[in-house]
Write the structure tokens for this entry.
Amino acid sequence: MAESTPFELSRIYANGWSAGRKCGADDQAEIDALADSLNPHQATVERERWSCGFKEAVARGISTPARPAHRKSRAVSG
């Protein structure tokens, strides 16, 4: 199998991040198990990159409080 390009690896990370944003787990063992079971990649480098994105998104979701309603972006009608 050909080695992934940096761009492909960035997309793999982003896909992991997207999946991680949907994860509601807050227990590290559960997060690790989900990252392993949901990861669609076979090659080690791609699996690591996807897992990294997934776990960083989950960690960010746990540590980042929700934005106040008045600070949320609003759609511009026009």
Remarks:
- The CA atoms of residues 13 and 69 lie 29 Å apart.
